[in-house]
Amino acid sequence: MKIYYKILLLLILTTLYQCKEEKKAAKNSLNFDNKKELKKVEKVIRPWDSLHKDNVEVFFTEYGKQHKENKVLIKTKFGNIKIRLYDDVPIHRANFIFLTKIEYFNTTEIYRVAKNFVIQGGNSDETYTRKQRRLYGNYLIKPEFKNNRKHKYGALAAARQWEKNPNKLSSPFEFYMVHNRNGAHHLNNEHTVFGEVISGFNTMDKISKVKVGVDEWPVEDITMTIEIID
């Protein structure tokens, strides 16, 4: 009997030791995984990892550092328009490059042709266009008015809502080009100018001659694509 009890006691002690070692190993494994998970979380919560309406400036400040392109090409059935974006209007420039790279503009149209005034684009009735706007929370951009960036002939500027918009926040999606040889200087410090046409003025002239409705929307759609060239 004594031998029996000794064997039983030995088995109990062995079992307890194994359980203790398993718990220790599990604890060490859990701590290691936690560290990995923490690193993942830290990586995800960086403010420029995902654009939304509350981190616009932070997102595009970082995005602009990584994407320094400042020339784009607007392609239409009437020809091409080459645009230079201003580096000293950094948030608007980075935003336009961002939208170009995700091909947002490629399902949009030139939807307003105001004779001897502006040619406006960046919107459409396409489902993809609406989805892209909702995806990023229909964010807005604070104005970046510059004394040296005026509404001259060929200026590229951001469209915006006039009603209930006292801070003159820009639409990130819609833009216009001034098509008046005298400029549109009454819009200075009302809309942010962030680029200019450097070639393709003849294309703008052709677009300006299309037939439009009472809302200045072209009777026939003028689709466009935009690509980065430099």
Describe this structure in words.
The chain is α+β, with helices and mostly antiparallel strands and 230 residues long. 36% of the residues lie in helices and 19% in strands. The chain is built from five helices and eight strands. It has helices at 2-44, 56-66, 90-101, 127-135, 201-208, and strands spanning 71-76, 79-85, 109-114, 118-123, 155-158, 175-178, 193-199, 225-228. Strands 3-4-6-5-7-2-1-8 form an eight-stranded antiparallel beta sheet. A hairpin with a 2-residue loop joins strand 1 and strand 2 (79-85).
Helix and strand layout, with pairings?
Elements: H1 2-44, H2 56-66, E1 71-76, E2 79-85, H3 90-101, E3 109-114, E4 118-123, H4 127-135, E5 155-158, E6 175-178, E7 193-199, H5 201-208, E8 225-228
Antiparallel strand pairs: 1-2, 1-8, 2-7, 3-4, 4-6, 5-6, 5-7
Helix pairs in contact: 2-3
